[in-house]
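Task: complex structure prediction.
Instruction: return structure tokens for all chains below.
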Amino acid sequence: MAEYIPSTSKWVADQVELYESSGGTEGTTLRDTGLPVIIVTNTGRKTGAIRKTPLMRVADGENYVLVASKGGAPAHPVWYHNLKADPNVMIQDRAKVQEMRVREIEDSSERQRLWELAVAAYPPYAEYQERTDRLIPVFIAEPV
Ligand code: F42
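Output:
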């Protein structure tokens, strides 16, 4: 069984701890914004370790849109590379935990539709894209 290595960001690791230990009843929003968060459990592409990444909850029907924004940082978040290496994830949305498979959206019109959903759910995504000249990657997570 692979080991879980918490995020190096304490606030992130703390949110995962609270979210999971409360069975998805606490720690389910972004700080005091009231905006919902999901936890994406993914596999470290180098360590094979279990990694847990909170992301804003952007639903598209039964699917989720995962946005590799990292606050508009110049480089993709490391979890982006994990998902590209192994698309099999677990997503916890409050009390619901399900196996899902992710794929990066390359088609520009589909990406545009999903990007608009994401910005509607979490407007700062638009500012993050302004901050960086990297195109912020968008994944769709679909039930297995
Ligand atoms: N980040 C987003 O990008 N989008 C969001 O919508 C978002 C929402 C959100 C809500 C709540 C919250 O608490 C955090 C939120 N975050 C969001 C932050 C997100 O959870 C991540 O912390 C952030 O995106 C940065 O991801 P990261 O994978 O770059 O994390 C770094 C800090 C990290 O954990 N690095 C580890 C380390 O040890 O330095 C390595 C982690 C890892 O996966 N290592 C791989 C392995 O094999 O284990 C190696 C990968 C490689 O190729 O090097």
